[in-house]
Amino acid sequence: MGKIINWDEYFMGVSLLSGMRSKDPNTQVGACIVNKNNRIVGTGYNGFPKGCEDADFPWCNSGKFADTKYPYVVHAELNAILNSIKALDDCRIYVSLFPCNECAKAIIQSGIKEIVYMEDKYADSDSVIASKKMLDSAGVNYRKIDKIGINFINEK
């Protein structure tokens, strides 16, 4: 029998797998929300809102604001919250990238109490600084996982 992964590895793996659904060529982010009984209650990835066709919107990340992805993309965390099937009080959210300030607001409002993340590459940005300030104030815990014992094989 192979290695048995722990809950953090399992749910972060689901988050990473969800992120692979994103068509964003620069940053594929996934999220997985889990209740206190270790049951998945929501998943999401960064993409355009339902009904907005990919061909009609840009994926670029520079230029005039309206000509970039930023005003149109729904982040993975918000998609997971919007796609959830149960109340989210006292849940955990697993996300591959630390949440921005807009996602932090949605996480706080939804009742999620813990964020488990892998990357914090924008830690020095105003968005993440604001995010951490709000999360700390609201009593939402967050912790980093450096790696998981899962390899996703991308065969072409």
What does this structure look like?
Strands 2-1-3-4-5 form a 5-stranded mixed sheet, with helices on both faces. The model has no long low-confidence stretch (mean pLDDT 92). The two termini are 28 Å apart. The chain is built from 4 helices and 5 strands, in the order αββαβαβαβ. Helix 3 runs parallel beside helix 4. The longest helix is centred in the N-terminal third of the chain and has 13 residues. It has 156 residues and is α/β, with parallel strands linked by helices. A hairpin with a 5-residue loop joins strand 1 and strand 2.
**Fraction of residues in H or I helices:** 25-40%
- What average pLDDT do the residues reach? 92
Pattern of helices and strands: HEEHEHEHE
* Main pleated-sheet profile: 5 strands, mixed
Rg on CA atoms, Å = 16 Å
Can you tell me the overall shape? globular
Features:
156 residues; globular; alpha/beta
Task: Summarize the helices and strands and which ones pair or pack.
Layout: H1 7-19, E1 30-34, E2 40-45, H2 76-82, E3 92-97, H3 101-110, E4 114-119, H4 126-138, E5 141-144
Parallel strand pairs: 3-4, 4-5
Antiparallel strand pairs: 1-2, 1-3
